[in-house]
Amino acid sequence: MTTDQHQNRPQADILVVDDTPENLRLLSTMLVREGFYVRKALNGAMALTAVEALQPDLILLDIMMPEMDGFEVCERLKANPVTQEIPVIFLSAIDSTFDKVKAFQAGGTDYITKPFQIEEVLARINHQLSLKIANQEIRQLNVNLEERVRERTNQLELAHTQLLELILRDQLTGLDNRIAFVDRLDLALSQSKSDQSYQFAVLFLDCDRFKIINDSLGHECGDQLLIEISRRLCQLLHSPDTIARLGGDEFAILLNQIQSTNHVTQFCEEILKTFFEPFTLQNQRIFINVSIGVVIGNTNYLKPEHLLRDADTAMYHAKAAGKAQYRLFESTMHESALRFLQIETDLRKAIREQEFILHYQPIICLNTGEITGLEALVRWHHPSRGIISPIEFIPIAEETGLINQIGLLVLQQACRQLSIWQKQNVVKEEFSVSVNLSARQFSQSNLTDQIYQVLSDAQLNPRCLKLEITESAIMGNPRSAADILHNLRQRQIQLSMDDFGTGYSSLSYLHSFPMDSLKIDRSFVQGLNEISNRRGLVPIIVAIAKTMSMSVIAEGIETAQQLNQLRSLQCDFGQGYLFSKPLPANDVIELIGSHPRW
Ligand code: C2E
Ligand code: MG
Ligand code: MG
User: Fold this and answer.
1) Which ligand minimizes its atom distance to the CA of 377?
2) What is the per-residue pLDDT for 209?
3) Which of 73, 127, 280, 481 is deepest in the core (most CB within 10 A)?
4) Which residues lie at CB < 5 A from ion ligand 2?
5) What is the pLDDT of residues 399-423, one digit of tens each?
6) Chain centroid to CA 384: how far?
7) In this predicted structure, what is the pLDDT of residue 190?
8) How many CB atoms lie within 10 A of CB 155?
């Protein structure tokens, strides 16, 4: 539509097609008077040419024309996508239903019978034009709507990718995170099930001593180090291998299409080698190592998480074996992890149900040959497994922290028992009981208070209690250990350094801890025999103890020869199967009552 300059409204362009010049003139004069822009065509061919040159807003089309009638003109217009939307009103002298139907079938939008009334013609034209405008508006609305839908779809897709990025990526290093890695493992597992030649391996990496770096240089530096580590690891990878940061200082690598286990172990060596080089952060050279656990994928695995679990277990074994190394997962590792869990669960129940009992092993004064004290050694009376040795459960109790509760139970029972024996006069006044303290108990802030409370509850003289502490327990935190030891010593509680010689054995620190006695570990005692003069370290340890005014107790004496040697070395006390194994309370009292002398 063009704009009528005078009336400032859209001026519709109407093409009138009629083979009768008279009709043509009449109609056009009339329409021009009504403000339309009118073009005229005398036959079908002229009409099509006029439409092609410029599309009118509406066509008034005579039906009866020579050569090409109105129906054909209309059909041609409707067949062309460019012109098919132009409304066509047919003009006909014949008022037959047949023609009208045919007119609509040909694509006409309306039908006027001649001779026409100008009002009717105008009404029908205006109606068609309004319809056309409405249609155009609807079409425009649709276009707008589609545009908006497209925009929204784009926005949604963008948000979706950003969300995926957040869900599947580690924000610090930009690597895959655990969720993404588990997805990849899942794919690898399915592939190995469908393709027997496909083999893969999972590596679980954990940085050694990372906490120290975080604590000493700050978290920002720690973060920077993690980024550098991830860069180094990425450089070692070949597509299609993938790497992920699982969290903290843990990374995982999926090696795809491995040829052999050798291939994997070589790769582990390469990783360890790249960590030989220090990292430089804040102008400082930082050395860090990793421990690696490896699991070779196989179709027995049902879930990707199980692969990670086993690689993690193997990594723990690498750490336990001294760090900065790798370990391949073996099924026995899993069994030991399960056993650990089972013992932990059972231990909690054992504490509740008081399943611990004490055995007592006599300590003999080598000078007189008489029993002067007892070492209390805990045993676990497991409801289904029978008696369990402390060697099996104490380390687990240590690691889980349950040792604090168990240690307290042992201390209470030992003190109470000795107090009862004293009152029954079955032991002499200076008779002592030794109780082992574990490293973990040493980090308890209320340890000393707890011990005093136990002594006072049992009404036992502190002099009768001897605490056995290993070197490693003290060295875990030498400063606070020294405080605790001084505190205990002030209260007259006696202190023994247990298993001496197996730990740090650093004599330089010995004087800073106020020990009453040293217990020579039984591995040294076993080395003693009469034939050889090579008595190992025992004479030296005895001599040192003497110069520091400490008494010496030899552990694990099993033969008369060992006893003789120790006597000749002036060792003060002895303990071992030669005298007696650790015994239940009743048996040990019977033994003491028989007044044995060795
Ligand atoms: P330990 O404190 O060095 O205790 C001595 C261990 O040597 C005991 O083993 C004892 O039975 C054993 N033994 C004694 N004489 C001989 C001998 O002649 N030959 C041999 N081969 N062994 C001998 P047990 O009772 O199995 O205790 C092992 C370790 O468990 C103890 O070593 C101690 O470190 C720990 N433990 C035992 N009871 C407790 C406890 O109540 N608390 C803590 N924290 N640890 C405990
Ligand atoms: Mg001991
Ligand atoms: Mg010992």
Assistant:
1) 1
2) 83
3) 73
4) 436, 468, 498
5) 889 999 999 999 999 999 999 999 9
6) 36
7) 95
8) 10
DSSP state of 117: P
Geometric angle at alpha carbon 148, from 144 and 153, rounded to 5°: 150
Measured from the Cβ of residue 238, the count of other Cβ atoms closer than 10 Å reads 9
For residues 329 and 333, what is the distance between their CA atoms, to the nearest angstrom? 7
Tokens for 556, please give them: 């694990």
| Structural domain spans, the chain | 3-138, 178-331, 336-593
Query: Using CA atoms, how far apart are residues 346 and 343, in angstroms rounded to an integer?
Result: 5
Mutate to test the pocket of ligand 1, among 374, 392, 394, 577 (most ligand atoms within 8 A of CB): 394
**Rounded distance from Cα 385 to ligand 2 centre (Å):** 24
* Cβ contact 112:91 at 8 Å: yes
pLDDT at 535 over 70: no
CATH of 3-138, one of 1.10.10.10, 3.30.450.180, 3.40.50.2300, 3.30.428.10: 3.40.50.2300
CA of 465 to the centre of ligand 2 (A): 13
Q: Do 395 and 404 form a contact (C-beta atoms < 8 A)?
A: no
Q: What is the 3-state secondary structure (H, E, C) of 61-110?
A: EECCCCCCCHHHHHHHHHHCCCCCCCCEEEEECCCCHHHHHHHHHCCCCE
pLDDT digits (tens, 9 = 90+) for 30-83: 999 999 999 999 999 999 999 999 999 999 999 999 999 999 999 999 999 999
* CATH superfamily to which 336-593 belongs: EAL domain (3.20.20.450)
Fold classified for 178-331: Alpha-Beta Plaits (3.30.70)
Residue 150 has pLDDT above 80, yes or no: yes
Chain centroid to CA 521: 43
What is the end-to-end Cα distance of the chain in Å, rounded?
128
pLDDT per position as a tens digit, 233-278: 999 999 889 999 999 999 999 999 899 999 999 999 999 999 999 9
Distance CA 220, CA 223 (A): 5
> Rounded CA gap, 553 and 205, in Å?
45
Burial of 453 (0-12, 13-18, 19+ CB in 10 A): middle
Give the residue carrying structure tokens 């605490």. 467
Side-chain-side CA neighbours of residue 27 (13 Å): 29
Ligand minimally distant from the alpha carbon of residue 380:
1
